[in-house]
Amino acid sequence: MGNFLSSITDSAQRKDDHEQEASRLWREKDDETHHIIQRCPSPSASPSPTNLDIFPKYSSNNEDRHRREEDRNGEQQVVKKRDDELKNEIRIKHYSSSHKILLVGEGDFSFSVCLAKAFGTATNMVATSLDTEETLEDKYSGSEQHIRQLRRFGCMVLHDVGVHDMLYDPVLMNMKFDRIVFNFPHAGHFPPFYETDEFLIQMHKKLLLGFFKSSSKMLNEDGEVHVSHRDDYPYNKWDIKKLANNGGLRLIEKVRFRKVDYPGYSNKRGGDIESDKEFYLGDRPYTFKFSSAANSKVNSSKLMGRRT
Ligand SMILES: C[S@@+](CC[C@H](N)C(=O)[O-])C[C@H]1O[C@@H](n2cnc3c(N)ncnc32)[C@H](O)[C@@H]1O
After folding, report:
1. What is the per-residue DSSP string for 179-248?
2. Which of 56, 117, 247, 280 has the most crowded Cβ, counting Cβ within 10 A?
3. Over 60: is that where the pLDDT of 194 sits?
4. What is the chain's mean pLDDT, rounded?
5. Residue ranges lining ligand 1, Cβ < 6 Å
């Protein structure tokens, strides 16, 4: 029992540490892009001999208090920035300028640029591709320009990010997101196989399952994972809902995907063959929205608590 309780306390502590680290990373990203948060000189930094007398002599208690104050100030500035963001919120379809958004599996990054242009900023966005920067330039005519635009909007752009192990990416590992977006996931084209062949279907399913397993652990409390995907044959054979359930997510909504809602978005075929061509969306493309299955259990138990 003692072990059980201490393991619960340990895991709560780890969760706390993780959340603080995530909030610190976002604060640091803001620092880089906007210089919003001016950090006070750290009391623990050793003062140079010339300014010794202007630094108070900190006892360890003072140091702790000062550090707590510094943390509180940091948190207050984050909360204030959040309030300001909500006041000036700009929305495009399911996305808001106040969301922290992770985009994965980008092709020529035109979807990310579309969001950034709509918001007028992309300091809350991290846009990623599986391809390296060099491969992207070979594959997509627009990628170089789009990446330059994104960086000007303050977006963090990362390459070589695979959805199976993005959880362990040194930059992403301590970040949490309100929206994680994968548009038209596809494992690639492998002639002579057709999309109807079980071999390819299994490859696509493996890709999505890996994505769901990672992304379900990278969400903020009310965060959502969005996958835009064809829902006609043979793409409906992937059984996206079941894959998401197996990856720790549950379907909350499924809405029609309309490319016209995202000006400038040029959906790409990807893979290694004719990558820059359009990926045909068929007549049944949808955005599938998922939330964490763990959260839904907490929510339903809260509801049950209220009823009794
Ligand atoms: C059909 S393309 C769609 C590209 C882009 N999302 C769009 O909508 O234009 C499929 C994308 O999935 C990406 N992809 C395939 N396997 C991946 C993996 N393991 N991790 C991350 N992305 C992957 C490819 O690099 C490609 O960009």
Report:
1. EEEEES------TT--TTSHHHHHHHHHHHHHHHHHHTTSEEEEEEEEEEEE-STTGGGG-HHHHHHHTT
2. 247
3. yes
4. 83
5. 104-107, 111, 130-131, 162-164, 183-187, 207, 267-270, 279
